[in-house]
Amino acid sequence: MSTGPADRLSANYYLAPAGTGVGQFMLWAKEAGASGVGLTIAALSENTPDKLKTMAADHGLFISTLNSAGYFLYPPGEQRDIQNKLNLSLIDAAARMDAGRLVVIAGGASGSGLTLEAARASVAKQLGALDRMAGEAGIRLALEPIHPVDLTIKGCVNSLAQSAEIVRSLPSTDVMIDTFHSAWDPDIWRLPEVLGDKLAVVQVCNWYEPSPEEKPLRDVPSTGEMDMAGWLSALIAGGYTGPIEFEMFDRHRRDRAVPDILNHALGDLRAMVS
Question: Which CATH number goes with the domain that contains 88?
Answer without folding.
Answer: 3.20.20.150
